[in-house]
Specification:
This protein is of the alpha/beta class. It has three domains: 104 residues, Immunoglobulin-like; 375 residues, no CATH class; 235 residues. Helices cover 47% and strands 15% of the residues. It contains 25 helices and 17 strands. Strands 7-8-9-10-11-17-12-16-13-15-14 form an eleven-stranded mixed beta sheet, sandwiched between helices. Helix 6 packs antiparallel against helix 12 and helix 23 packs parallel to helix 24. The two termini are 25 Å apart.
């Protein structure tokens, strides 16, 4: 054991024995004590030792031994040490006995086995499916009323560190492969555009090849479920989050229900393998957009700003999803009309109307119309109006299939004897008045296409209305007959046979499907041409930026998915939390300790963009196929503009959820980022550099957090939120945070403390990050834990620093350091620590400059 070189040393170390260790009555246990002469140089000298047998200990009075420490030559006594036993049943239901070392009975640390005890509530089957290799520590601290609280700290790896990035890489490959096919489907282009298309396809091929190689390397990996900090620069691991761990603190106090506090620790999502010589994503993207304008002139392309290209991707995604859905609903409508009664028919028709409305709405955008014109101008042989004095002529494009289908007009006319549908159209045709005249383009063509979609759907609605009207007129006389029977036998109008009626509906359904297909194909080609122009205006830098953004987002999503799963598991029995989850979603608060100096500016810029991109992510809860670990792994679907993470739950847990969650409602998670640099580099930035990036991030994310709070209070009752001992309400904490983010104060860590408190008050997900989540992160996490013990569980203030040092010296965070760099030393030196805020400094003997 190590002790601080004082006149009244306290030895806060302890021991326990894993279940597989053979321990017998005659087993001897030896305690050795060393004095630290120089905490900075780490020189130590042996003070003394003592031994005892297990049987002597167990037979001692009150199971406590007072032992003399003897020098190495046994010539003198240098002190005493008291060894006592703590019964772990005081914390949990188990009867596991652990031996601890304790001097003066002021502050006690207990080592627990690395996998937790048998009855550990934090290590159930659900948790074990996703969280691995847990390290547990147990402490005993004194409260203000001289009672004892037991604190358990558990740190675990997460399987999502690798599984989420591997799924994402596969989705990147799939999306880029589809993009290549979409570019090929543009058809014949003029030589200029065809050459640009070939160049763009070549770039996509290059990305796909690199991603396939990376995925192949990741599939070979076995072993730990985390990437250590020393591997952050390895290229093939660039998609994997750095040092991702979960940490839970469970507190047991006399006569109180256990409380627990979670935090996810992860290295700042950043492209370490690509470096930060030219800055991070925020700076690089801004510079890239300004350069694209000049490249668009060089390559004779139309410049589309980021919001337009993002909209193009969204339109492409929506159309790809809705077209097959509408087609399937149309077929289902036809089958339902022939086989069932009116209500199922009405339900299917309603779904068909809703999806068609969404389809129409997605394609109303001016971007689609202008892109159609641009694509037409890129066809071979195109001659603009300014280049030709020939009079405009009608377009030679192939007419829409429905325009030449006389059966459609005939059926519509036969529905009620007029060409106008009997009720107001659900879907109105989109006018294209803004598309200019020129020799090769007919401005009415796009109008006719949309009119056909609207007319096809409205004819279906009219026919079903007519048939159901006849059904209603005859329902009392033939309540048991199907719709087809009523039409055949009881219609007051001239009889309509089932065969004729089916033929009419079949024609309309087929017409709608053909219209939607025609419109979808034209729209997809037009927005694909927009994306071709964006890619054509790109350089090699654009390719690298996409890869950088993909890697950073992958790290951020893995961390977010880990935090969401942990928070969901913890709240499965909390009805208020579940109500909040489906009503307004959760806030995910990322705390960053990066400086705004040198390379860490680039890391913070990467992190800001990566966390901002998480707004494109939704979650969905599903029922797992089984309770096997493989069935409980979250899965990712979607494409770069929008991803969904599906979290499966065992049958019993899923069935206990509110109906909204069981129905698969998309669940929103709102990410916010607050940064305060605390190291010596931040001192330089504050005195001689620029901290505007940090100030902008904090101000912007405060506004986002405040907006979420307003939505929360307007939607969810206050009783749904957790209760805390501190009576300060969330609004007051927000006001204080708002004041702090605009206050010019060096290393204002109160911003981080307030943001963390607000997050916990609002049932949010907490994340803490620095460069590698190893050193500064450890200081922050242990400080937060001890602050919670003081504020919420009456930790004696006289022992606050002692408890803080105890956690940093012997707790889970020093184990994290050991896992990362095989050394139990935080990577600080004395000069660095002089610049740290007071409570972020580790105890003497726990730090030294090492490779991190």
């Amino acid at each position: 054991m190590e002790g601080e070189g004082t006149r009244d040393p306290m030895f806060l170390s302890g021991v326990s024995f894993p279940p597989d260790w053979p321990i017998y009555n005659e087993t001897l246990i030896k305690l050795s004590v060393y004095g630290v002469n120089d905490g900075h140089q780490q020189t130590t000298n042996f003070l003394g030792s003592s031994s005892f047998s297990v049987v002597d200990f167990l037979q001692s009075k009150d199971q406590q031994l007072s032992l003399n420490l003897r020098t190495a030559d046994d010539s003198a006594t240098v002190g005493t040490v008291v060894v006592s036993r703590l019964k772990m049943g005081e914390i949990e239901d188990g009867e596991v006995d652990h031996i601890i070392g304790d001097m003066h009975q002021k502050c006690t640390l207990v080592y627990e086995s690395s996998h937790g005890s048998i009855n550990d509530k934090d290590n159930g089957p659900i948790m074990n499916a996703v969280f691995k290799n847990a390290v547990c520590k147990v402490y005993r601290f004194q409260t203000v009323d001289s009672k004892w609280m037991l604190v358990r700290e558990q740190m675990a790896e997460c399987t999502l560190s690798f599984s989420i990035p591997k799924q994402l890489i596969a989705l990147y490959i799939q999306e880029d492969t589809c993009r290549i096919q979409e570019l090929k489907d543009l058809g014949e282009l003029s030589p200029h555009w065809d050459n640009l298309r070939k160049d763009v396809i070549s770039r996509y091929d290059q990305i796909i090849k690199e991603y396939q190689d990376t995925l192949a390397e990741l599939e070979k990996l076995t072993g730990p479920s985390f990437k250590p900090s020393c591997s952050k620069g390895q290229k093939y691991l660039e998609f994997i989050p750095i040092n991702l761990h979960t940490q839970r603190m469970r507190v047991t106090c006399p006569r109180k229900t256990d409380s627990f506090y979670d935090v996810v620790t992860v290295g700042a999502p950043a492209a370490h393998s690509q470096g930060f010589k030219n800055g991070g994503l925020q700076k690089l993207l801004s510079k890239y957009e300004s350069e694209k304008k000049s490249y668009s002139t060089t390559y004779q392309c139309i410049y589309y700003p980021p919001e337009q290209t993002a909209k193009a991707r969204e339109i492409l995604s929506v159309v790809s999803q809705l077209q097959p859905h509408i087609s399937a609903l149309a077929d289902q409508l036809l089958q339902t009309a022939q086989q069932s009664s009116r209500q199922p028919l009405r339900d299917v028709l309603k779904s068909l109307e809703e999806k068609t409305e969404q389809f129409v709405h997605a394609l109303k955008d001016e971007l689609v119309k202008s892109a159609l014109l641009a694509l037409h101008a890129a066809r071979p042989g195109y001659v603009s109006k300014s280049q030709s004095s020939a009079p405009s002529s009608p377009a030679t494009a192939k007419p829409h299939p429905s325009d030449s289908t006389e059966e459609l007009h005939s059926v519509c006319n036969n529905v009620d004897g007029s060409k106008t549908p009997p009720r107001e159209s659900r879907v109105s045709p989109v006018r294209a008045d803004s598309i200019p005249h020129h020799k090769e383009y007919d401005e009415e063509e796009w109008d006719r296409v949309w009119a056909s979609v609207a007319k096809s759907l409205n004819c279906i609605i009219a026919l079903v209305d007519k048939l159901q009207e006849q059904d209603n007129n005859n329902q009392e006389s033939a309540p048991s007959q199907t719709l087809a029977d009523v039409i055949t036998s009881h219609s007051p109008d001239p009889p309509v046979t089932s065969a004729v009626w089916r033929d009419q509906l079949g024609i309309l359904v087929q017409s709608l499907k053909e219209c939607v297909t025609e419109v979808a194909e034209r729209a997809k080609r037009s927005v694909s041409f927009v994306l071709l122009q964006e890619a054509a205006c790109s350089t090699a830098q654009g390719l690298q930026l996409q890869q950088r953004r993909d890697a950073v987002f992958s790290q951020a999503l893995a961390a977010l998915a880990c935090g969401f799963v942990m928070r969901l598991y913890a709240g499965l029995e909390d009805k208020g939390f579940l109500r909040q989850l489906h009503a307004v979603g959760l806030v995910a608060q990322f705390e960053s300790l990066l400086s705004t100096y040198s390379e860490e500016i680039g890391m913070l810029e990467d992190m800001e963009v990566g966390i901002g991109d998480l707004q494109r992510v939704t979650f969905r809860i599903s029922e797992a196929a089984s309770e096997e670990a493989v069935s409980l792994q979250p899965t990712v679907s979607g494409r770069r503009d929008r991803y969904t993470v599906e979290v499966p739950l065992p049958h019993h847990a899923f069935q206990a959820l509110p109906e909204e969650l069981r129905e698969g409602k998309p669940l929103r998670v709102l990410p916010v980022l607050f940064n305060v640099g605390i190291n010596e580099q931040q001192t330089i930035a504050e005195r001689f550099g620029d901290i505007s990036l940090q100030e902008r991030i904090n101000q912007k994310n405060f506004e986002i957090l405040e907006g979420y709070y307003k939505s929360l209070t307007n939607t969810v009752p206050s009783e749904c939120l957790p209760c805390f001992q501190m009576q300060t309400d969330i609004k007051e904490l927000l006001d204080t945070l708002g004041q702090n983010v605009v206050t010019k104060k060096r290393k204002n860590v109160e911003i981080l403390w307030l943001a963390g408190m607000i997050c916990r008050r609002m049932n949010g997900i907490r994340f803490t990050s620095c460069k590698s989540a190893k050193d500064r992160t450890s200081m922050s996490v242990t400080l937060e834990q001890c602050s919670l013990l003081r504020d919420e569980h009456q930790l004696n203030k006289d022992y606050f620093v002692r408890a803080l040092d105890c956690m940093r010296r012997e707790g889970c965070r020093i184990e994290n350091v050991q896992k990362n760099i095989k050394c139990r030393k935080y990577a600080f030196n004395m000069l660095q620590l002089m610049a740290f805020p007071k409570y972020y400094r580790p105890p003497d003997g726990t730090y030294g400059k090492v490779d991190s």
